[in-house]
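Re: that backbone. Tokens:
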């Protein structure tokens, strides 16, 4: 994301805990800082501080260190996969300090530099307008939307990831049946075929083709599929609102099952997560 912003003329200052990450950012042309305090000191008001860190306590700890250093009118952007209810709470805490808090659901994974990041943004319109040039340059054409007030961005991203669970599970089951069926089917060729005019064509199928090209039977992977939380939150939201969501629910349960035993479908899921997001996989 830093590289994409720099390539489009933005000035970026970077703090990361690991020195090698800071060195990588400096090599790209970013200004680097060795602490959050030093980072804030490099920024010109109204400051825009963008967090790209794992959801949960990590975000609260970073905010606890950052917010006291900021001044009236400064803006915080959370581009991670935070629970939208946490984002609403954090926006209220920021407001009490006369700061603005934007939740930016971000999709695109390790391919975002090349094709752009899909951004689902929630927050006060005036604050969003300040950061909008960066949002537009990070996203592909049509890939950025201000979806509503605080929490709305992460809510939309949460549902996006729940849908992703269901789509991936359907592909995994289909390819498992093809793999174990009565014919010697070339799964890479079928992945490519279905992306030409088929109603099931998608970027996930392109990634499936890429995975099968390098390892047709996915022998190098274990069928162990992790989850990072958004599917669980989506299902809980559905339960709380009495909305049936059987496909997404079963997709999550299949991921839990994959941690006990494995089959080829689980390998497809693991391969897809590695392909689109660079997520860690367990080697066979």
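Recovered sequence:
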């Amino acid at each position: 994301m830093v590289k994409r912003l720099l390539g489009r003329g933005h000035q970026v200052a970077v703090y990361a805990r690991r020195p090698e990450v800071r060195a990588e950012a400096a090599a790209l042309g970013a200004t680097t800082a060795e602490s959050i305090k030093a980072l804030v000191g490099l920024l010109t008001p109204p400051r825009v501080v963008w967090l790209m860190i794992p959801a949960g306590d990590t975000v609260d700890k970073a905010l606890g260190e950052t917010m006291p250093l900021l001044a009236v009118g400064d803006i915080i952007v959370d581009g991670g996969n935070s629970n939208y209810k946490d984002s609403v709470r954090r926006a209220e805490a920021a407001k009490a300090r006369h700061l603005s808090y934007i939740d930016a659901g971000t999709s695109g994974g390790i391919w975002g530099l090349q094709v752009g990041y899909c951004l689902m943004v929630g927050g006060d319109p005036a604050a969003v307008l300040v950061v909008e040039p960066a949002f537009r340059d990070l996203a592909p054409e049509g890939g950025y939307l201000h979806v509503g007030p605080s929490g709305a961005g992460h809510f939309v991203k949460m549902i996006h990831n729940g849908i992703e669970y269901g789509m991936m599970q359907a592909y995994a089951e289909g390819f498992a049946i093809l793999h174990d069926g009565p014919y010697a089917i070339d799964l890479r060729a079928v992945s490519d075929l279905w992306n030409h005019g088929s109603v099931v064509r998608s970027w996930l199928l392109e990634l499936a083709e890429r995975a099968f090209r390098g390892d047709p039977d996915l022998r190098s992977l274990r069928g162990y599929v992790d989850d990072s939380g958004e599917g669980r939150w989506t299902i809980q939201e559905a339960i709380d609102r009495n909305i049936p969501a059987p496909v997404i629910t079963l997709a999550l349960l299949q991921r839990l099952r994959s941690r006990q035993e494995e089959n080829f479908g689980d390998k497809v899921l693991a391969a897809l997560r590695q392909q689109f997001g660079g997520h860690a996989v367990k080697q066979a």
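The first helix runs from residue 2 to 7. The radius of gyration is 21 Å.
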